[in-house]
Amino acid sequence: MRAPRWTILIGLTVLCIAAVATWAAAKPADLALLKQFYAPKEGTDLAKANCLACHSKMPPTKTDLNPYGKDLQKTAAGKPVDEKAFRAIEKLDSDKDGFSNLDELKAGALPGDPKSKPRR
Ligand SMILES: [Ca+2]
Known about the structure:
- The protein has helices spanning 5-24, 28-38, 45-48, 67-76, 83-88, 101-107.
- It has 120 residues and is mostly helical.
- The chain has a domain at 27-107.
- It binds calcium ion.
- Residues 93, 95, 97, 99, 104, 111 line the site of calcium ion.
């Protein structure tokens, strides 16, 4: 017996929803967490940042990380990135631009991009 068309339609719909949910949960959660913790002012590099806050190129992968992303990954040590991991690397200057990660994040600059610095 053939399955009715509506069951095929429902099956395809469920598959599409699952695919979208998997994609959405991939990693933007880390970016949302970063923005939640440091609440950057509108218009700053950090407020405008996408995956490049931690990754070195698009589309982002687990291995294409900028210096800040690498420090974060090292600190998280395989566990999901959480507040503790962000806090643990605040004193570092991941991108070696002379500003600590915390100073950059508080100013809305990108701690993994030496071209993005807090204004003096
Ligand atoms: Ca820095």
